[in-house]
Amino acid sequence: MEQPPPHAPAPAGDAQAPYLELLARGASADAYEQPVLLARAEGAPPGRIAALEDAKRLALGVRAEMEGRRRREAELSALFETAHDLAGLRDLDAVLQAIVQRARSLLGTDVAYLTLNDPARGDTYMRVTEGSVAARFQQLRLGMGEGLGGLVAQTARPYVTDNYGQDVRFQHTRTIDAGVHDEGLVAILGVPLMLGPHVIGVLFAADRRARVFEREQIALLGSFAALAAAAIDTANLLTETREALGELERANEIIRDRSGVIERASDVHDRLAELVLRGGGVHDVAAAVSQVLDGTVEFSDADTAPGEAVEVSRTEGHAVRLGADWVAAVAAGGELLGALVLRGQPGLDPVDQRTLERAAMVTSLLLLARRSASEAEQRVRGELLDDLLDARDRDPRLLRERAARLHADLGTTHVVLAARLETAAATADDDAEAEAAARRRLWSAANHLAATRHGLAAARDGGTVLLLPLRSGGTASGVAAHVAKRLSAAVHEPVTVGASAPVADLVARAETAADAYAEAQRCLDALRLLGRAGEGAAAEDFGFLGLLLADSRDIGGFVTRTIGEVVGYDERRGTDLVRTLDAYFASGTSPARTKDALHVHVNTVAQRLERIGRLLGPDWQEPARSLEIQLALRLHRLAGPDRR
């Protein structure tokens, strides 16, 4: 067979074949050099090498076109998905987060974020971030015209910089530069969020290395910015629509209420009768009347009821108006027992006025019927609790029998609570009498709560002590918060409550109840010292301070509650998150300095801090939480061999 001349060009099909194979399997751009290099190594004639070079250029052109189409398809798909999210808008934050996430993914940047203007404060603030790990950067608030974002907002045009720190086109400030430095950002692209002719914010994409953003990428980020602005506009319209619907609904309610006055009068009669038959209390009556009259009805005892108005009501036998309120005396014979006060209903019609008067009469009957029984039961409950706290040589069997007669089970797990009313110190006889009356109200309310929860209560140390069973799944902290809320509402003044850790079988050891009460008092004193009067808490609520308040020093439990998720992740995955967290705090919470301490890339630090944030929760860098985490890290190091 006749051979082609040595310098003749190779057939086009032979030269294109290897490149078609590379295109078919989606090879990298570097792989397209191999056919030419191989031909030269084999000593192929110049004609074949020239043909291969031509085929390579054609193949790379086809590959670039295919890559461009794939990229455009991905961009269009992301834009369609975002538009779909906007069409079904339910949560504005979720839509904005999705926009920022997709922008970061498609542009391949380390960080993406969105700022919004605050007209009320005259500045702009960070609304959504993706990929950010620096707390100071995430909390930035910037004055108008400051930084790259300020220039975008002023000109309503996109701006890009490949090195923000060295770019003199922008107005640099210490706050912005510190935040950008903490995040380690270098290249930044910003495009405006526009509502009509107005700029309402800026959408950014940024890298922690020098980078040139292409025209297509700027246009893509602008498309995402347009969708973000549309989402914000839609959310604002939805809010206005909901407000308008709410106003319309309120108008309809007024119409329905006026047409149903007589029906309400009949309804309250039935409710009050039912309350009496099933043994309801004073506050049940107030709650029932509140629902019927669409207001707030409160019971005030004789000492705290508005004096002049109550006397007029008792004398005339009718409810009387006092400013924007109505007062109905609760009296039996010649004794004033208190008053029902309807708040904020100055325009009460005659039917509703008679409803309030009827409720006051029912309240007086309930108070008289329960007074003697309540006093006897409260005395018995208080004596039993006093014996638990004070008696050292007592018979456990007799204590259990006495508790059983009061429907209390001393064998189950309980929480001991110390409650104190937050009133000013008495400086005169009237003040002393008022404080004593307030303490009586607290003791009465505590006894009522204890009786409904199958517990015990007693007046002690100028306050009240309660013993309440711990329900399944409950915590001492939850019980303390609930009791503080209930007692404060009952006496209409702040009541601070400290709780012990759960204790089981109170009669097994003589000192169990007394020790638990001492712990509850320490928690109560801690709340007041911390300026948290009127709240309820147990030792577990005070973080590392709880280690000092509790009878037992549960250091391991504190470490586990605080950083256990991070420690466990390292143990399961063989990662280095604990050391990274330690270095991050030691470096002043600067990712840039942390990467120097760990000798890793700043992106590695960012990825680790992102993982730590997901494990510890979004508030892990708040000052109080950060302090607890740093203490837990130190205790963790002391508890075992140095893991660094």
Describe this protein's structure:
With 644 residues, the chain is an alpha+beta fold. The protein has helices at residues 12-24, 34-41, 46-87, 92-107, 135-138, 147-155, 174-183, 215-259, 261-277, 282-293, 307-316, 350-390, 396-405, 429-452, 476-491, 512-529, 545-549, 555-573, 577-586, 591-598, 602-616, 623-639; strands spanning 111-118, 123-130, 141-143, 159-161, 187-195, 198-207, 296-301, 320-322, 325-332, 335-343, 414-421, 456-460, 463-469, 495-499, 536-538. The strands form 3 sheets. A 6-stranded antiparallel beta sheet has the order 3-2-1-6-5-4, sandwiched between helices. The protein has a 5-stranded mixed beta sheet with strand order 12-13-11-14-15. The N and C termini lie far apart (75 Å).
Describe the structure concisely for a colleague.
It is built from 22 helices and 15 strands. It has 644 residues and is an alpha+beta fold.
Morphology:
elongated
Radius of gyration based on Cα positions: 37 Å
**Main sheet specs:** 6 strands, antiparallel
Helix/strand/pairing class, anyone? alpha+beta
* Uncertain residue segments: none
Identify the strand order in the major beta sheet: 3-2-1-6-5-4
Overall pLDDT level: 78
Number of helical stretches of at least 4 residues: 22
* Count of individual beta strands: 15
Percentage beta strand: 5-15%
Q: In percent, how helical is the residue content?
A: 55-70%
First-to-last CA distance = 75 Å
